[in-house]
Design brief:
By secondary structure, the chain is an all-alpha fold. The chain contains nine helices and no strands. The protein has one domain (2-197).
Length: 202
């Protein structure tokens, strides 16, 4: 049951994350996600067989200290945005900010309502998962969301070279994770946010 709940919490977080990207892109002029049927919270529209199912399941079964994955990326045509250079920043931030917002809302629920122990555990786990997803995706390595923020801030003559890193992005990320990037960079930031939220102990 704990295994199933963990996957459900993770899957919900990545679905909200991808939906937020598509929604903000739609608000800023790009309707690609809508026409592709991806501007929805229906989980079936966002499943990536490897990133959403296989990888998280294998990492959980193997008791990996880091469980991560991804939903099928929402298609976005950045040239369809009203101001591509500026708007790519907001589209990139939309996913991580949606996860942070969910974590903040759930922390308020925990502090405001007396909950059964199992539900309290589940909500705390959801908070951690959403924060990890947000902080990890803000890493400025293409194709993660942090790279979209960097692209919006870089001079135009540099963005092409920076974006070209994307074809090696997942290799770079796996190497960083292997050498403790999560424990040394991601988790300390998540821990700072959790301390700020001051959640009740189980």
């Amino acid at each position: 049951m704990a295994f199933i709940l963990s996957l459900a919490v993770f899957f919900s977080a990545v679905v909200i994350h991808e939906f937020a990207h598509g929604l903000v892109a739609f608000w800023l002029g790009d309707k690609t996600a809508k026409y592709a049927g991806r501007l929805t919270l229906n989980p079936l529209a966002h499943i990536d067989p490897v990133g959403t199912l296989l990888l998280p399941i294998l990492l959980t079964i193997s008791k990996s200290p880091v469980v991560f994955g991804w939903a099928k990326p929402v298609p976005i045509n950045y040239w369809g945005l009203r101001n591509p250079k500026r708007d790519i920043l907001w589209v990139g931030l939309a996913g991580p900010l949606s996860n942070i917002a969910i974590a903040l809302i759930l922390s308020l629920v925990i502090k405001s309502i007396s909950l059964p122990l199992i539900l309290l555990y589940l909500l705390k786990q959801a908070i951690v998962v959403n924060l990890v997803l947000a902080v990890f995706n803000l890493t400025p390595i293409p194709p993660l969301d942090g790279s979209r923020v960097v692209i919006s801030l870089l001079p135009a003559n540099v963005t092409g070279k920076y974006a070209s890193i994307e074809r090696h992005g997942f290799i770079i990320l796996f190497v960083l994770l292997y050498f403790g990037f999560f424990e040394r960079a991601i988790y300390p930031i998540v821990k700072i946010i959790l301390n700020f939220l001051n959640l009740p102990q189980l």
